[in-house]
Amino acid sequence: MKTCPRFAALRKEYEREISFLSAHSERHAGRPSAKSSAKYAASMKARMARALSGHVGRCPECG
């Protein structure tokens, strides 16, 4: 599937945030902040999927 530069930028931004949150969760395992970061990373993945599928539906270059 061919995608536009905006799709790639949006995906890269979400993946960066998810990796930061996951790394924080691993680094601080056993603490309440780690659990919070892990939950936020999981919800961020769902948000990324929703945002990217919405982009594909609206973008004439991607869809």
TrEMBL record:
This is Uncharacterized protein. The lineage of its organism: Bacteria, Bacillati, Actinomycetota, Actinomycetes, Kitasatosporales.
